[in-house]
Specification:
By secondary structure, the protein is of the alpha+beta class. 47% of the residues lie in helices and 16% in strands.
């Protein structure tokens, strides 16, 4: 089981990053060093540069890059969800699942129906440039081998598929056989592939090829020569999560034939691993969606704050303008009262003073407090409601 989430502040993580090597700290948090570095960059936490720990080891004084201030409060708290170590599944279940011994005799007869169908789907006369056998009618087979290695690959697959049948696994390869063959383990689909290592060396043109190239300038001899090695490798992986995979190869001490029991057990081990990976993916997507939701809500709050600040700014400017107009009206009234002007002109000035006072009241946001409150609370497109 993975530990619960780790919660700490930016300052705390900054202190740890600059006092503990990244790999050590990443293991402590149950993360990879790359994942921890991404987390620090996401929260604007500077990281030590190259040579930092080497200089400390030799007793040199190293200055830290200061932790920049963060205006976003959501970045102040950091939540770390440790993940389950990649090899925990195998180490925990090795003792629980005994590995059966499945022999693959050199003279084993191919009896499994699916393996016989695969055998019939492979062309013996058509090969690619590397000598790998091609298939008939565009069929997709779990083999990438030469003609020399094909009998071995068929025997290994026949022994494995026969064991899978005994353990009630399902092998799916529907007609017209142009899709991947899958093994169904506890509802999870796995795919396998047997490949052969092919050696490549630079081709040395023959005398005939050199002569032809001189004669036919558009023709070129092959660049590489390929040769089959007979070394086989079987890879088993989840169809849904390609990062969940295991492989077995011919080696100096043992052949692929001796690994059939391990492959059978791995089919059982991989199914719960796929379910855990799916749950982890769903949880990661849920947290990602929550993070995006929080960011969207924060953006809305910032936009609303800026809108209200702009509304208050405009209201205060309107109030200042109204106050200035009122003072002008009062000053104009004072001058008009003291001035010796004709009655007609006085009446026109008094009408102007009256209009100016009414305009000052109209501009003043303090005149209609309900209207002022609506401008503060609602976006402009709500004013007409």
């Amino acid at each position: 089981m993975s530990p619960d989430k780790i919660t700490l502040t930016r300052a705390e993580l900054y202190e740890k990053v600059w006092t503990t090597p990244m790999r050590t700290l990443a293991k402590e948090f149950g993360l990879s060093d790359v994942g921890l570095a991404k987390l620090c960059r996401r929260h604007n936490i500077p990281l030590p540069g190259r040579g930092h720990w080497a200089r400390i080891q030799f007793g040199q004084k190293v200055e830290r890059e200061a932790l920049p201030a963060s205006e976003e409060t959501r970045l102040g708290t950091i939540e770390i969800w440790p993940r389950e170590p990649r090899h925990t599944r195998k180490s925990e279940s090795k003792d629980e699942l005994p590995i059966p011994t499945i022999e693959v005799a050199d003279g084993r007869q191919i009896t499994h129906s699916v393996v016989r169908r695969i055998d019939n789907s492979i062309s013996r006369s058509r090969k690619d440039e590397r000598g790998i056998l091609l298939t008939r009618q565009g069929r997709v087979v779990p083999f990438r081998v030469s003609a020399e290695a094909l009998p071995r690959a068929l025997r290994i697959l026949d022994a494995l598929f026969s064991a899978l049948d005994e353990h009630k696994y399902t092998i799916e390869w529907p007609k017209p056989y142009n899709t991947l063959l899958t093994i169904v383990s506890d509802g999870e689909k796995l795919q396998l592939l047997i490949t052969e290592a092919i050696e490549r060396r630079e081709h040395k043109p023959t005398v005939e090829e050199v002569a032809r190239q001189k004669r036919d300038y558009w023709w070129h001899p092959p660049r590489w020569d390929y040769s089959s090695t007979g070394r086989l490798r079987l890879t088993l992986e989840s169809v849904e999560f390609s990062q969940l995979h295991s492989s077995w190869s011919d080696g100096k001490r043992r052949k692929l034939e001796t690994c059939v029991g391990e492959i059978l057990v791995e089919c059982e081990r991989m199914a719960p691993a796929v379910k855990r990976a799916r749950e982890a993916k769903a949880e990661a997507e849920r947290r990602w969606a929550e993070e995006r939701k929080r960011e969207a809500e924060a953006a809305i709050r910032r936009a609303e704050y800026e809108r209200r600040a702009e509304a208050v700014k405009k209201l205060s400017e309107a109030w200042q303008q109204s106050t200035l107009i009122k003072e002008f009206a009062i000053a104009l009234q004072t001058v008009t009262a003291a001035a010796d002007i004709p009655d007609d002109a006085r009446k026109e000035l008094e009408a102007m003073i009256d209009w100016t006072a009414r305009h000052a009241a109209y501009v003043d946001p303090l005149t209609d407090l309900n209207c002022t409150l609506r401008q503060f609370k609602n976006p402009p497109w709500h004013y007409g409601n």
